[in-house]
Amino acid sequence: MKDRPTQLMSHFAELKKRLYISVAAILIATILAFAFYRPIQDFVQRPAIDALESVRPEDPARLVQLDITEGWTVTAKVSVLVGFAAAFPVVLYQVVMFVRPGLKGKERRTLYLLLPGGTLLFIAGAAFAYYVAIPPAIHFLLQFGGEIALVTPRLSSYVTLVSTLMI
């Protein structure tokens, strides 16, 4: 009974270590994403630009920024989301390594399948949303609203929609 508090403290120490590694991975990935924000923003905005060009070929296809801080806010939001997505394998690995000591043989093997499987499913889901679901959805919404009024999508609203669909 006396070693129980010691065991608990060692578990907390291990959890703390795994959390530090996960947070560091997210921070590094977020900083790198922020450093390359321009190509990332272009990539994120591409479905909207393509849909705008097909719905209104005579008008220049652009998203609007209605607030003075919107550009910065959207860039920060996209950088953090890309940071989380890029660090996902590291975070998942840290979770697996923290849980692993408490599992038996067959449970461990199953957990090891979770690491590549979870990462691949996450990437596949995000890719499906970006390449298959988002373009027709944006095109439909622009056409539907375009019958009522001129639709000029707001940058922050568009990024929120895309990030919600992808995650």
List the main descriptive attributes of the protein structure presented here.
single chain; 167 residues; mainly alpha; 5 helices; 0% strand; elongated
Order of helices and strands: HHHHH
Quantity of strands, as a count: 0
Rg, rounded, reads 21 Å
Mean pLDDT across the residues is 89
Strand content: under 5%
Summarize the main sheet. Answer: none
Report the end-to-end length measured between terminal Cα atoms: 45 Å
Content-based structural category? mainly alpha
Number of domains: 1
Overall 3D shape: elongated
Helix share, percent: over 70%
Q: How many distinct helices? A: 5
> Unreliable stretches, pLDDT < 50, 5 or more residues?
none
Could you explain how this protein is built, in words?
With 167 residues, this protein is an all-alpha fold. The chain has one domain. The protein is 81% helix and 0% strand. The chain is built from five helices and no strands. The protein has helices at 4-35, 37-55, 70-99, 105-146, 155-166. Helix 1 packs antiparallel against helix 3 and helix 3 runs antiparallel to helix 4 (105-146). It is elongated and about 75 Å long. The model has no long low-confidence stretch (mean pLDDT 89).
